[in-house]
Design goal:
Blueprint (H helix, E strand, L loop, with lengths): L5 H25 L1 E7 L4 H12 L2 E7 L3 H7 L11 E4 L2 E4 L4 H10 L6 E3 L18 E6 L5 E7 L3
Parallel strand pairs: 1-2, 4-5
Antiparallel strand pairs: 1-3, 3-4, 5-6, 6-7
Length: about 160
């Protein structure tokens, strides 16, 4: 075993601390802010938030019992509604949309798209995570509520 001087130990500690601060700052800088509106009692929404956080998003959650007004404020038609509404990069994300699809939306920035939705609560979507896997479709929607298929998830 090697003995190190007090001065070397202090240098090593300082270097370790600096690396830790840099690592935390880098991780934070790479996170994408995400604002989520959800019912305070909704467990599946909490699981979706955890999914988004684990994949590089920095969610801020607002619990509200009046989620319908949030949906109206952000032009989510009733037929496209799900259990929670999120805002990211100028887009609306309605329901249990996978993080990979949200990242693709942010990268592609398709013209005329207000956001993405999975109407209802598909059992296989992130946050629901029920087995066996059942296929589901992610829709893009515009300001008039017109939808197009954005992604199809056919297997887990």
């Amino acid at each position: 075993m090697h003995d190190i001087s007090r001065r070397d130990a202090i240098r090593l500690f300082s270097l370790s601390a600096a690396i830790g601060v840099w690592s935390a700052a880098t991780t934070h800088a790479e996170s994408t802010p995400l604002v989520v509106y959800k019912d305070p009692d909704c467990g599946c929404c909490e699981k979706w938030v955890a999914h988004m956080k684990a994949t590089g998003f920095a969610p801020t959650v607002t619990n509200t019992r009046d989620i319908a007004s949030i949906k109206r404020q952000h032009h989510v038609p009733d037929v496209l509604a799900s259990c929670h509404t999120a805002l990211v990069g100028g887009y609306v994300v309605e329901g249990h949309v996978p993080a990979a699809d949200v990242k693709r939306l942010l990268a592609q920035k398709p013209k005329g798209v207000v956001g993405l939705t999975i109407p209802g609560m598909p059992s296989s979507a992130p946050g629901m995570d029920m087995t066996p896997f059942k296929p589901y479709t992610v829709l893009a929607f515009d300001a008039q509520g017109k939808t197009t298929v954005f992604a199809e998830h056919k297997n887990g």
